[in-house]
Amino acid sequence: MNSKRLFAALAVAIAATVGGFYAGHLFTGSDTEAATQPNGNAVDQLWKITPPAASGTSQPLAAYKAKPVVVNFWASWCGPCVKEMPTLSALQREYQKKGITFIGLGVDSEKNVNDFLKKVPVDYPVYVTGFGGADLARSFGNNAGGLPFTVVIDAKGVVHSTKLGEVNEAELRHTLDAL
């Protein structure tokens, strides 16, 4: 009798796990798209923080309020993050003429961010949020907590797109051109 109960419990556990993965897939759409819509306070939360810049100074992110901005959550240990940085830097150089600013939020330690930036130059401001940056990314709908995660916000503070995973340059250009 005990083996029958054990087998039944195991079958229920497996079914629940499979159902959970399936439901998670339905709600996220795919593993490269943002999981949900941003929380209404996500942009306000972003403007309230004053993380240290990689350069050593601190600047309130509210300085970017009322401007279109591309926010990229990344980490030095994240392969896709590192791979997309040259694309983001090139787009920053191009779109800064149109008033669009890119900022990087390092979900990493200050030492790791600074060591990384000594090796790989980035043409946009980079700030260190530590692992608290993952909570901020979740407020934008990144429930998976994955990196990289990119958010495009217009001058009115409206989130136009979120992207979990490496950016697609053509898609990002399309979004930026629509601002």
The gross shape turns out to be: globular
- Spatial strand order of the main sheet: 3-2-1-4-5
* Percentage of β-strand residues: 5-15%
**Main beta sheet strand tally, sense and closure:** 5 strands, mixed
- The name of the CATH superfamily of the largest domain reads Glutaredoxin
Provide structural commentary.
The protein is α/β, with parallel strands linked by helices and 179 residues long. The protein folds into 2 domains: 1-30; 32-178, Glutaredoxin (3-Layer(aba) Sandwich). Helices cover 44% and strands 15% of the residues. It has 6 helices and 5 strands; from the N terminus they run H-H-E-H-E-H-E-H-E-E-H. Strands 3-2-1-4-5 form a 5-stranded mixed sheet, sandwiched between helices. The chain is globular, with a radius of gyration of 19 Å.
List keywords for this structure.
globular; 5 strands; alpha/beta; five-stranded mixed β-sheet; 15% strand; 2 domains
Secondary structure elements and their pairing?
Layout (H helix, E strand, L loop, with lengths): L1 H27 L13 H7 L20 E6 L4 H17 L5 E6 L3 H10 L6 E3 L3 H8 L9 E5 L5 E6 L4 H10 L1
Parallel strand pairs: 1-2, 2-3
Antiparallel strand pairs: 1-4, 4-5
What's a concise summary of this model?
With 179 residues, the protein is of the alpha/beta class. It is built from 6 helices and 5 strands.
